[in-house]
Amino acid sequence: xxxxxxxxxxxxxxxxxxxxxxxxxxxxxxxxxxxxxxxxxxxxxxxxxxxxxxxxxxxxxxxxxxxxxxxxxxxxxxxxxxxxxxxxxxxxxxxxxxxxxxxxxxxxxxxxxxxxxxxxxxxxxxxxxxxxxxxxxxxxxxxxxxxxxxxxxxxxxxxxxxxxxxxxxxxxxxxxxxxxxxxxxxxxxxxxxxxxxxxxxxxxxxxxxxxxxxxxxxxxxxxxxxxxxxxxxxxxxxxxxxxxxxxxxxxxxxxxxxxxxxxxxxxxxxxxxxxxxxxxxxxxxxxxxxxxxx
Length: 294
Hints:
It contains 12 helices and 9 strands. The chain is an alpha/beta fold.
């Protein structure tokens, strides 16, 4: 996104709408912390509350957390029979789902309809959508990305997340999952390189770097403080999954995530001071778009 030595960071909360604990954490971190962006899961149990919160807090830079796996569809099951079961839920299995989406082109019209419905739900609420990404970063799937970019242009959504993470930096700070970190880091670096060309060709914005992929659910204060000296020139998106308290819905989907610690990190005065001392600016996708991307 940038060619200067200027360093900017965008803090994003994913899974907005998943539960009351997540929604409350987003609202609190927006008021008192470094958080400026949130990605809404439109089909999640508390999405209506999240939309209401977004209307009440127009300073929130809202995005859509497109969901095609491990969640509930927006469209009725009869309209997307290849994607959701009779109750409207997507598959829970990432690898199997990814292979189906790739090797069954017949599913792509259904995928497009569901993605469009998720984007339209935000716009129909009278809100502006500034960025888009995917649950488990599935928006970068080779069969899904062209649909996402086409719809982003159609609905005027200016920015798309790329998941190009310096996983070696994460390994130096959180070394307990080396195989997981290397595998995810390499796969999504490859997908992001391919995606970046298409994003730029579509006239859309994207982040240059990212953290949150290979240390997911553990974006603690200590980890974020350790990242600051490692931030590179350009725009780095850091995403996390903050929560006010443990909740059944969170234990169901993300039992190992440290949501309360991640919220504490976003609220940390030490983090805010360290960013200022290092000359790192806190930004968001709306500011990047309105500022011309530079």
